[in-house]
Amino acid sequence: MSNTLQPLSDHWRNRYLLMRHGHSQANQQGVIVSSPERGIERFGLSEHGEQQLAQLVADWQWPVPTRVVHSDFLRTRQTAAHVAARFGLVPSVDTRLRERNFGELEGQGDDHYPSVWALDAEDAEHRHYQVEALSGVVSRMQAVIAEWEQQVSGETILLVSHGDPLQILLTALANKPLTQHREQPALLPASITQVGD
């Protein structure tokens, strides 16, 4: 699945490929894994996710990345490793690309997501269940791009992150209220959205 989002500005110095990790063990088990304590060492790619990534890199149809940057969670690390190996790159970690922290819902069923998203639609600053606020998520995600924009130009940078953070970032890049992030098309596992030229 591929999406292309036109940047708001004509002044992007780099092209970005925003990638959600492949299908994970957390997806398979239907559980929320959003804390570093559980996500960094456990809940990597499922067997289906491994197959997804093998197929994706074999049939690569996006611009060739010159850098691969990923969240430190196991599922994103493994996803990034597949792409980096395909193009002879050494991936690097940026903890700002981590999953949105779902607070008290950690380890519970993923059927709890809709109740958080309903609250999101009312208030981008809410912290019900000690969930990370939308504004905090978008701030750290935008900071990653802003830093690369300052450091390099003419690169194609693959950012491997998670569904909610990417959907929130794309909402901000489209200049829409963060409360509308669930109105963005859902980002499927191993999907890539191109931002920039």
Automatic annotation (TrEMBL):
Pfam families for the chain: His_Phos_1 (PF00300)
Q: Does the keyword Disulfide bond apply?
A: no
| UniProt keywords, alphabetically | Hydrolase
Entry keyword Repeat: no
Matching InterPro entries, A to Z?
A: His_Pase_superF_clade-1 (IPR013078), His_PPase_superfam (IPR029033)
For this protein, what is the EC number? 3.1.3.-
Broad EC category: hydrolase
**Single GO MF annotation:** hydrolase activity
Protein name, UniProt field: Histidine phosphatase family protein
